[in-house]
Amino acid sequence: MTAFALDNPLDRGGLPRPGNVLRTAADSIPPSGLVLLAIFSVQIGAGFAKQLFAALPPSAVVFLRIAMGALVIGALARPKLRGLRGRDWAVGVGFGVTLALMNLTFYEALARLPMGVAVAIEFLGPLGVAVAASRRRLDLVWVGLAGLGVVLLAPWGESSASSWIGIAFALAAGGFWAGYILLSAAAGSRFPGTTGLAFAMIVSAVVVAPVGVTAGGADLLRPELLLIGLGVALLSSVIPYSLELQALRRMPKHVFGILMSLEPAAAALMGVLVLGEMLHAQQWTAVICIVAASLGVTRAARGG
């Protein structure tokens, strides 16, 4: 991260700077380990966020997470917005709005579905981006496999509309995730270092604030909820992004993509461990289908 790119590894008191200590610690871990830590960090954060739904509506939890994350990342990145052109602002604002909508729809899905199911369906977004970039006939096999996974996850025969609404929110979150990936690349080419992410999170916090503050009200000021919200922000945004950034500096992008394909399985596992959400055999089969589809697309893209 640019905030840690300092010439002198010692602070004024002669002690190691925290950023350099963290970088040294990260360098001692294999890059594949960093990616796995990032994946599990995100899913543990999602598990804690879902536990907050007992005290706050999903939209209020989203606001708490994004606002806390924007404060932390903004303090670390210290974005400088002078000199930005009109298109830069458009990309940055679009990035932030997409980030807000992605989180709002995902948390609404999370409130209605087991975490492993919600993440597996949402993962169709990045899978679709990978398929569109590859354009191979073999990708039709992976698309079919992912489609089978969604069919297996669908709550056929259930009378409650809640699960179907959750699936709709998860599919919407996947679409916004696809847009997030494309806009993230565009922002990365226009904003130095982590400035783009910091700018997007600030925009996202502003977008989510009206619905989040209205839904959460005075409960958003409860110290224990603020503390948990900070923990969710660190686990879901700050820590995984930092780990992924370090990993990408030391490993090929296709290997990174293959490891990220494990995210739905990690979400299902964390759902069991953190939330006690036991998936049945058909749901596990569906998650495996989607993971296998993502792995297949990623490996096929590398092969070309």
UniProtKB/TrEMBL annotation:
The keyword Transmembrane helix applies. It is a multi-pass membrane protein. Residues 165-298 form the EamA domain. The chain crosses the membrane at residues 59-77, 89-107, 113-133, 140-157, 163-183, 195-213, 225-243, 255-275, 281-301. Its main location: membrane. Keywords: Cell membrane, Membrane, Transmembrane, Transmembrane helix. It is found in: Cell membrane. Belongs to the EamA transporter family. This is DMT family transporter. It comes from Nonomuraea corallina.
